[in-house]
Amino acid sequence: MKDERVLLAHGSGGLMSQRLIDEVFKKAWSNEILDNMLDGAVMEVPSGRMAMSTDSFVITPLFFPGGDIGKLAICGTVNDLVACGARPLYLSVAFIIEEGLAMDQLRSIVKSMAETAEEAGIKLITGDTKVVEKGSADRVFINTTGIGFIPEGIDFRPGRIEPGDKIIVTGQVGDHGLAILSQREGLSFTTPALSDCAPLYQLGEIVNKYGNSIKCMRDPTRGGLATVLNEIAGQAQIGVRVQEADIPVSLVVRGACDMLGMDPLYMANEGKMVIFAAADAAEGILADLQSLPQTADAAVIGEATSEPEGMVLITTELGARRILGMLEGEHVPRIC
Ligand code: MG
Prior knowledge:
Elements: H1 15-29, E1 49-57, E2 63-64, E3 67-68, H2 69-83, E4 87-98, H3 103-120, E5 123-132, E6 140-150, E7 166-169, H4 175-185, H5 203-210, E8 214-218, H6 224-236, E9 239-243, H7 251-260, E10 274-277, H8 279-290, E11 299-305, E12 312-315, E13 321-323
This protein binds magnesium ion.
């Protein structure tokens, strides 16, 4: 394609739209369902329960250390399906593009979506593109909707959590938040801050092996670990106790947060999961997580308690106990 930038006509539904679809999207994402080019995707689904999740991505910058908006758009939806106990199957993708976006940037976003989807074993089967006038959007926004199959008997939800259940986090927290913040503010550290953006499809093995010994999973994205723990404590009507010393945080995130006066427990993650599991299964789950590359830094960070209902208590590294509240206000806008 000779055009260097996305033009309004690329969203017109006419010849230019057709060329954009054929030369950018279809080329990168080709599969037997997408290639039919019907008004919607027609596909086989296994019989049983399905999970469906939708998310919109408005992150700035579009390209950041460890990923880009395209990779993030796949990971965000894949990880929400995984959190439901589902095996991700299919994705729809909708772009809202500001006129003038460099075609090379779009190609690069589309390519990283294809690579991430391939890695996660999910197929992009239908999509839409709209182009709006300059100033009506900021370069590109992406919506992804995914569906996945929930294996027989899997039932992950906060209501199944009981006092004594262990809480596992699958790796170091705060990496995505710091990567975005440092890129935006032009901060540099001796070790570069990299986003943890990753599709957590490997957790499927853990789900298959441990089934309903896992009570609930949630990915600590916006608002970070502290916010997810509070949401779950409230929904499950249980208490949550965690030990700060047991929560994995990288040296670079710890150092930067100290310097910036921020708390890693409220920083966004895009490749982590919080797992509530029965106490008798927790050791096995932890050992298996630690043997997988994506979740090698997993740790047990605390447990569910009968009270105080709906609250999260943290024992600090100095041994004091305090309430870990919800995130107040906007920490870092347009983080995902
Ligand atoms: Mg989520």
